[in-house]
Description:
The protein is an alpha+beta fold and 169 residues long. It has helices at 5-68, 74-85, 155-166, and strands at 114-124, 133-143.
Amino acid sequence: MTTTPRNFELALVTLRRRRRSRGAVFVEGIIVVAMLTIMMASALFFHRLYAMKLQTMRESRVAAWSKALPGCNSAVELVALWQAIGLTDAASGGALDGLNDDSSGAPKWLEVGRQEDVKTATVTQDALIGGSTFNLKTTNSVVCNEVGDDHRGDVISVLKYMWDAIIPS
Length: 169
């Protein structure tokens, strides 16, 4: 079996095609690995960012509820509510001025008895995807509970509660 020049040239062409295809596969592999690495780093960063946001939300909610659960004095809050809507100025003619406020924002009387907490956190990107720093902030507001009573509702305690709610001590 002797090789003819025609078969030899055909073998060389086939060999060159294989080498080129191997080089193309290698370059494509490098590109795919680089893209997958960047996508994985981005996914890990967004996971860390979202987990940190959920943590600040939990901490803020717990802190606001722990401030509000012990309760607020109902008499003080009722007077503050009356002042917020303008009922304490009834003698001067401004009995319902607070109810006619501009409705673009929350009315003042919703702020009475509110407990608020703010939590912040900072998350930094990996250097592979930019190295930026992001600040997270979560604000939670909870309205105070009334102070609970230890005894059942007998007539004297109900009248005392009503008196404390209407006239501040």
